[in-house]
Design brief:
Layout: H1 2-10, H2 13-20, H3 24-38, E1 43-46, E2 49-52, H4 54-76, E3 86-92, H5 94-99, H6 101-111, E4 115-121, E5 135-138, E6 147-162, H7 163-169, E7 183-185, H8 198-201, E8 209-210, H9 214-222, E9 227-231, E10 241-243, E11 251-260, H10 267-290
Parallel strand pairs: 3-4, 3-5, 7-8, 7-9
Antiparallel strand pairs: 1-2, 5-11, 6-9, 6-10, 6-11
Helix pairs in contact: 1-2, 1-4, 2-3, 4-10, 6-10
Amino acid sequence: MRLFLAVARERSLSGAGKLLRLDPATLGRRVARLEKALEVVLFVKSPQGYALTEAGAQLLERAAAVEQAMRLASAGVAGPSDRMSGQIRIGAPDGAANFLLPQVCAALGRDHPDVDIQIVALPRVFNLSRREADMAIGVSAPSAGRLIVQKVSDYHLHLAASADYLAAHGTPRSVADLRASRIVGYIPDMIFDRELDYLADLGLSRVALASNSVSVQLQMVARGGGIGVVHDFVLPFAPGVQRILTREVSLKRSFYLIRHADDQSNRRLSRFADLFGAAIRAELARLEAKA
C-alpha cells in the first residue's frame, strides 16, 4: 500500500522512487505484482505518467485511510520526546478559516501548548511549492505538483435567506422562482475553483450582490440582501438565516488537506495533520447538526 500510494500521488515511477529510495524498475515490478495479486488494473501507463483507473481511485481512498489510521496509532503511543512544538502555518479558504478553523485550532492549541498555529485566510489556491504554508485546506484535490492530498470530509450547502428578506419578498417555491429573486454569490470572474461555481449549476447568471469572500456573502444574506448558497456549518453563526428549497437544492462538496510531498517524512507535521483532520471532521459534524 505504501508503494501504491507513492506512485498514485507522484503519478510516476521516477517520482515515487525518489521518495521511497527505490529503483523505478523495481517499483514498477512491485506495482505489477500488486495488480496481479488484486486481479485488477490500477494504473494506465502513458508517456505523461501513471494515471489511476477507476479501480485505482477506489483503492487510493482506502489506502489513504489505512495510512491515516497507522499515523494516528503511532501518535497515540508517542512518548514525551515526541511532544509537538514549533510553528505550523495553515492556508485555507475564508469560509473554513472564519467559521471552522478557529475553534479547531483553539482546541489543538490547548492540547499542544508548545505549537504555534497560524491561519492564513485567502480566497485562492495556496502555492505550497513556494512554501506559503505548511499545509492547506482545499475544496478540490489538485492534480498537479508534488503533493500529499488527503480527503478530510464532505460538507453540505443549501440556499438560504434571512427571515426579513423572505417576509418582504416571499419564499420561492421552486428553483425557477429564484430568477425573480435578488441573488447573493461570488464575483463571477473571481471564482478560483470550479467547485465554488454553485449558481451556474442552478442556471442563475445574474448576481445582484457579490463578493469574493464567504464571510461578506453571509453578511449580505443576513442583512436581507437576497438569497445565497450558504454552508451548513456556517448557519449556527447566523441565527436569523434559514435554509430554503432544501429538497430541490442540496449541494455537497469536500475539504482536502494538502501538503508538500517533501514533508511526508516529517513526523511532526504528519502527526499534526492527522489530529487536524480528525478535529475538522468532528467540528463539521457538530456544526452541521445544529444547522
